[in-house]
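Hey, why these numbers?
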Amino acid sequence: MSFVVRSQPPERDDEPAAAPPTPAETLEAERAALTAMIRRGVRSERQMRLLKRIAVLTRAILEMGDEG
């Protein structure tokens, strides 16, 4: 996409821009990406760090759900 195309105002029939992701959606996306990196049966330091980060993200997502 060139600068000229980006700098033009949107046309009347263009779809509106997507809303930015909510904080919960951002956390869920990070959690999903980390979950995909987990290898079952492997217990290395890296895997344990990933599991701990997933646990932190899960708690944060659950707390956000309780507030809303």
